[in-house]
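Write out this protein's structure.
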Amino acid sequence: MRYSRFLPVSFDPARPVALIAGKELYPKLTLDSMRAAGIEVRLIGFEGETRDDVVASFAENERVVIKVGQIGHMLKAIRRFQAAAAIMVGQVTPGRLFKGIHPDGKAVLMMAQLKKRNAETIFGAIVTEIEKLGVTVLDARSFLDHHLADEGAMTGGELLVDRDALEHGVEIAREVARLEIGQSVVVSKGTVIAVEAFEGTDEMLLRAGLLGATQPIFVKAVRPDQDFRFDVPVFGDRTVEVMKEANIKAASLQAGSTLILDKAAVIGQARSAGVQIYGYR
């Protein structure tokens, strides 16, 4: 049985997988898919981040809930669960990576060894610590193949925006991603309207909407060296709501790389909102 094209050939479905779960819907979708496939799952959740219904779906001996920053506690839980693999899914509130965390001794030591401190270096260091245990950290798209963006107009019909403008947006988004500024931009007829940085996608879209540009296009891209073990671009119902509020009617997502969280529902919502979702290669 093929569980996901993103799993390594060494993946053993007979051994437990540690689900390291951030907030909102992403961990729930992954958990549901894993359970439907018969995978034995153990939970590592975070106080104030992981959904209550996800936590409650595990027996007490199959879960642990820790504070953000307690890396040593996380590693101990993975060992206790005898997990052969781990998967990191769902965002942790970005600001909590820099304030409001509760680092244990392992986290303090790990952070002291980082030359740069940003989301990529922090999560990359966590992956390294997990894999020192002999545990494989899986591609975070695993088990969610059916929720990935497809090539073409996913909401149906012909492409409603100018193709040259779209190609310009893809070029700019890829360059912004390569420079590690953000992963999304809004463009309009050859003009860059807004670039995502630390404030996140929603704030960028709302800022772009204030400018009243003609036929703005929201474009999301991935970096050339994107590490999908902890950094997967996502698109969900909240983004559709914000696009509607900002009067941005077209979104272009990198096919095969961007997760549309609860894909069928989001595409239906986008159609109702008059938003076109397009996938590019």
